[in-house]
Amino acid sequence: MSAPSLTPEIVLHTSPHLHSARSVGVIMRNVVYAMLPICLYGVYNFGISVVALLVVSTLSCVLTEHMFCRAAGRPSSIKDSSVIITGILLGLTLPPGFPLWMAAVGGFVAVGLGKMLFGGLGFNVFNPALVGRAFLQAAFPTAITTYTPALANGRFAEFIPTTLTFPFAQPPVITEWIARVRIDAFSGATPLTALKFDKIGTGLTPLFWGNVAGSAGETSVILILLGGLYLVARNFMDWRITAAMLLSAFVLSGVFHLSNPAAYPHPLFMLFSGGLMLGAVFMATDMVGSPVTPLGVWIYGGVMGALTILIRLLGGLPEGVMYAILIGNAVSPMIDNLTQPRVYGTQRKTGARA
Fold first, then answer.
1. How many CB atoms lie within 10 A of CB 333?
2. Secondary structure, 3-state, the chain
3. What is the pTM of this model?
4. pLDDT digit string (tens) for 41-99?
5. How far is residue 120's CA from residue 68's CA, in Å, rounded to a whole number?
6. Distances (CA, A) of 232 to 29, 174, 185, 248, 278
7. CA 123 to CA 171: how far, in whole Å?
8. Which residues partner with 306 through β-bridges?
9. Which residue has better confidence, 88 or 211?
10. Distances from the Cα of 282 to the Cαs of 224, 322, 339, in angstroms?
11. How far is CA 9 from the centre of its chain?
12. Residue 352, number of CB atoms within 10 A of its CB
């Protein structure tokens, strides 16, 4: 019997050699925590219809991812909580009275087409929640532009009539419901729609606090900013993307406003209204779809902020955040390639050693 070898064992591993305790699941759960106050305020603002909307959109996303994983013969990836973020974000971007069956379809498209088709988490090119919303806007343009008033009487006792619409049935007219809950002055328009088509402005204070019509989770600026600050404090979000997007939107809208104050709104109105704040904090900062170079993240955010304002002010739609972020996702790889830092000892253009 031979004696045991005294040669020390050397084990070689590939990188990374240092591991952080911040796993994907930990990061994603913290993002969910940051969105919970926004969800609760949406429920306070619009009632139980928002509860049903968020539950259906999230369950649809979770079940879709589980189904795709099972079909591919691999373990389910729903435990990392990323699909829960997709479902919540999708629900927050929809009108409070959006039909539930349409939200379920949107969840299936968001995860199936926007995520799993590319290979799952880490491989998707576009933000999955916005892929789902873009599909819903194209497929159901009337339903996705039908908004209801905030703080309606009886909102915790009954659903908004359009919420429980049967699949492929004609949604009920909500005029009678609006009159019954005693919202006499509501026109069915969000602040951006009222400004663009009716030339009616909205004060900054209600926009900041969020007691205005809009999508389920886009109205409260203060809660969205607090959620973003929480993620920045935990180092779970690249603040530079949000800062670049908001700064770009503020500067460009300011140029328009200074050129013609009667025709173009104040820059703060543009920041506080619509989905710009929600998109800049929770969607544009998606780690998968955003650049990683220091200069690239500033360019990326600046492009999306400028596109949002151009679509709002010069396009035919009152809102442009969704398209701006999807375009930003599309050009993100190119921005990364163009902003790669020069490797020490090489020339930027040729790559030859100095």
1. 13
2. CCCCCCCCCCCCCCCCCCCCCCCHHHHHHHHHHHHHHHHHHHHHHHCHHHHHHHHHHHHHHHHHHHHHHHHCCCCCCHHHCHHHHHHHHHHHCCCCCCCHHHHHHHHHHHHHCCCHHHCCCCCCCCCHHHHHHHHHHHHCCCHHHCCCCCCCCCCCCCCCHHHHCCCCCCCCCCHHHHHHCCCCCCCCCCHHHHHHHHCCCCCHHHHHHCCCCCCCCCCCHHHHHHHHHHHHHCCCCCHHHHHHHHHHHHHHHHHHHHHCCCCCCCHHHHHHCCCHHHHHHHHCCCCCCCCCCHHHHHHHHHHHHHHHHHHHHHCCCCCCHHHHHHHHHHHHHHHHHHCCCCCCCECCCCCCEC
3. 0.88
4. 999 999 999 999 999 999 999 999 999 999 988 888 888 889 999 999 999 999 999 99
5. 9
6. 14, 41, 40, 20, 15
7. 37
8. none
9. 88
10. 9, 12, 24
11. 50
12. 8
246 vs 184, more confident: 246
Angle between helices 24-46 and 48-71 (to 10 degrees): 150
Round to whole Å and give the CA distance between 165 and 160.
10
The pLDDT tens digits for 301-334 are: 999 999 999 999 999 889 999 999 999 999 999 9
CA 261 to chain centre: 30
Q: Which of 89, 92, 96 is nearest to 110 (CA)?
A: 89
Which of the four pLDDT bands, split at 50, 70 and 90, describes residue 294?
A: very high
Q: Which pair of tokens denotes residue 345?
A: 């000892």
Give the residue, 168 or 279, on which the prediction is more confident. 279
Peptide bond into 95 cis (omega under 30): no
Contact present, 194 and 202 (Cβ < 8 Å): yes
Dump pLDDT digits (tens) for 111-167.
Answer: 999 999 988 888 889 999 999 999 999 999 999 998 888 888 888 999 998 999 888
Question: Which residue type sits at 78?
Answer: I
What sign has the CA pseudo-torsion 218, 101, 135, 35? positive
Q: Name residue 101's amino acid.
A: W
